[in-house]
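User: What would this chain look like folded?
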Amino acid sequence: MRHARRRVVRRVTRLAAVGGLLLGATMVTHAVASEPRAPDAVPFATAEETAAGPGAGLVSRLGTSRTAGSWIADDGRTVVAVTDEEAAAEVRGAGAEPKMVRHSMDDFKSATETLRSAPRVPGTAWAMDYRTNEVVVRGDSTVSADDWSELTEVADGIGGFVRMERSEGVFTTRLNGARPILSTAGRCSAGFNVTDGERDFILTAGHCGPDGSVWFADGQGRQEVGTTVGGSFPGDDYSLIEYAGGRAGEGAGVVAVGDGKGVRITGVADPTVGQRVFRSGSTSGLRDGEVTALNATVNYPEGTVSGLIESDVCAEPGDSGGPMFSEGIALGVTSGGSGDCRTGGTTYFQPVTKALARLGVRLIVAPGADGGAAAPSPAPSDARGAAAPDAASPGSSTPVRGILPDPSTLLSRLADPRNVGPGLLVIAGSLVALVASRWIRAEQDRREYRRHYSASWG
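Assistant: Here's the prediction, encoded as structure tokens.
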């Protein structure tokens, strides 16, 4: 009877082991054949689809010879600068407020091209001020009197709509959040998490480090974040840091704003002049201000960067690469500026839309309140304008977990259903059970033989 029970146990064990082998092989095959699940991400979009506010649509429709930009007034109304009465009537018909100006966007572009062709002077910057219908040229404290005089002559040759301003402080990149990330190049801030569908990355400033820079979350170099794998600086100011484990982990669609709090990021767009915006950085934390100009050019000591967002939000060294956003919409990553958060200053941001398009990646967004994918914020279509600047907020609040994925232990990697690990564990366990059952049977047979042999020889 005892031998019969043993045979039944051995038979069940062998059948279970064989079944486990088949199941594990199926799991491995499925994991290899199927693509890993990509995080929720905003689809690729055109410039028209990501343009912020109805003013941008009106400017695009009326053309650069009849308009000179748009902005959000203090009461939330959309204002469009126009150069003729017919364009003004069309703006009124769309529900926005027209403002008659003398100089068009074409005049602005011609002026900035002339400034760009002049001898480069580090410490200078220029941007289009839509509200005053002027091009503003700024020079920091490092610009000599002779260089400033020569640049003033260039401006005078352009016309009376170029305004010259001297600025205190120095225009520098903010190297040295969002969360802090560190490498031998210095300290920066993580911006937004993005994906190409197969791998996840941190979008940050391009001046933070060249390709191959290795980033850590701690000063001892023990918690590796990832490696810079591409970007552009100068010219632009963006780069990608590929996560060491390939994935951004839980909370990838959230940016940190301090005290363990974060903001859900639900979409991406270009900002509007006059819009209230928020910036988070590892040095100065969460700060807010207003977009003062678009398409700004800054002559940093390292080189010239164009197409930037200008704002009066303060920033300090170490804030570079940190995210700028409003109402949960990603807008830019911190490039540089002048001043600090004690005296104020001017800060410039790389537009996120431009960086995503050129890098071929998509923004990872936070799940909705019900746990499902967050729908990208629709492009504004109401020409009466957006919320008044004072009414704007950073976005929906949520706890933040940090920029690193879950600990990359062997167990967590094997347990990840996106990997072949679970299938391999089942196969390994089945093989152990099969080998063990065979060994036990062989050992029992040897014992039976010894007992029989011993009895037969008395």
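Confidence is low (pLDDT under 50) at residues 31-37, 44-49, 373-385, 404-416. If you want, I can go into more detail on any region.
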